[in-house]
Amino acid sequence: MRVAIAGAGAVGRSIARELIDGGHQVMLIERQSQQFEPETVEQADWVLGDACEVSTLEESGVERCDVVIAATGDDKVNVVVSLLAKTEFAVRRVVARVNNPANEWLFTDAWGVDVAVSTPRMLAAMVEEAVSVGDLVRLMTFRQGQANLVELTLPAETPLAGRPVSEIALPRDAALVTILRGDRVIVPQPEDPLEPGDELLFVANAEVEGDVRKALGY
């Protein structure tokens, strides 16, 4: 994919490196000259300019990008970049960083945001996940479809041990997308057996999360 990242601070550069390592083309857009340091991520294309300006986005070719990530430290900037990317350049996928959780209500599809990532919420979710084996934990909200990424770790005494994935009677608006088992990432097949300690990742409508829990025996 071709990905544009608005904001070349520590967060933006870190995201860029991860994406480049994954084989993607990355462009970093930075408006502050003191943070314009192409030598820090040499494999990326760098643009010095304000991503809140339509002219900057036009000149950088944002319309050719598959994804735009608004990763600055200013929520107002991230909202504006998201709106421009979606409405003016029809970017298929827009991801925005939420710096202040109090502003999270703004980061919706009405402002062009497909996925809002709040670091405090993610950290809290990781803490919950670490101590809540057997509980359903919401990790991320996909704003466009009103769906959530949720996780449940099977406890040692799970009744699902040894049973195939096909026996999980999930509700209509939920899907098991990944099983994390140790250092393995498993794309679940109907015949795959479940094991204690498996981390199950689901995409589910918020209204059926309770039904997902019941389907897993909780």
From TrEMBL:
PROSITE patterns: RCK_C, RCK_N. GO terms for cellular component: plasma membrane. It comes from the Bacteria. One of its GO terms (molecular function) is potassium ion transmembrane transporter activity. This is Trk system potassium uptake protein TrkA. Keywords: Ion transport, NAD, Potassium, Potassium transport, Transport. Residues 1-117 form the RCK N-terminal domain. Residues 137-218 form the RCK C-terminal domain.
